[in-house]
Specification:
Blueprint (H helix, E strand, L loop, with lengths): L2 H31 L5 H8 L3 H7 L3 H21 L8 H18 L6 H4 L4 H24 L9 H20 L5 H16 L4
Helix pairs in contact: 1-2, 1-4, 2-3, 4-5, 4-7, 5-7, 5-8, 5-9, 7-8, 8-9
Length: about 200
């Protein structure tokens, strides 16, 4: 097989990935404005034809499921970018709060009950576990280094972080807090609660 013919599948794969991302980004924006928006509106926002959209996602529920997967994937990338092994754990937790709130705001429609109910619970549990593992390791490092209270289970700290982010997200969406206020409040509340008392 020539190099030019071998490159064709790679180009197609890249086109599929690019179009998929365009669709998911457009879906997050459109659904944030109108939770009942249809596939045609999402296709228009993505700059693609409806036929292309349906080739990627034959049903709206499949698109919503893929949107959940993308949100958790983006959250994982955001956590990794916070350099969990570097420097002070307290400073790293501040970075994690800021990064995850950014992702949550982008995909905030997914936290609406009507969207959560349509998501496979086992998949959601798997996705949460993927995010919980690096956070737990960070907490354990902080406890070993004496920065975080040793009596707090890592799962407790991770769940507390999630709850604070959801509260901050809700208040941002409702217009009661700015993005920056939510970030500061979530970080302050979390860190004041988990830091070691010397």
């Amino acid at each position: 097989m020539s190099s030019s013919s071998a490159a064709v599948p790679e180009r197609r794969r890249a086109d599929v990935e690019r179009n998929t991302r365009r669709i998911l980004d457009a879906a997050a924006q459109v659904l944030a404005r109108d939770a009942g928006a249809g596939m045609a509106e999402i296709a228009t926002a993505a700059g693609l034809g409806r036929a292309t959209l349906y080739r990627h996602f034959p049903a709206r529920d499949e698109l919503i499921e893929a949107l959940h997967e993308q949100a958790f994937a983006d959250a994982g990338v955001a956590i990794a970018a916070c350099r969990l092994e570097d420097g002070s754990v307290l400073d790293t937790l501040r970075r994690v709060v800021a990064a995850l709130l950014e992702v949550a705001v982008q995909y905030h429609i997914l936290f609406d009950d009507s969207f959560l109910q349509r998501t496979h619970s086992e998949r959601q549990a798997e996705r949460r576990a993927r995010l919980a593992t690096p956070i737990a390791r960070l907490v354990e490092r902080g406890q070993r280094q004496g920065e975080l209270a040793p009596e707090l289970p890592a799962r407790w700290v991770g769940d507390a972080l999630g709850s604070l982010l959801l509260t901050g997200l809700r208040l941002v969406v409702e217009g009661e807090l700015t993005h920056e206020q939510a970030r500061q409040l979530a970080a302050t509340t979390l860190l004041d609660g988990v830091r070691a008392r010397h």
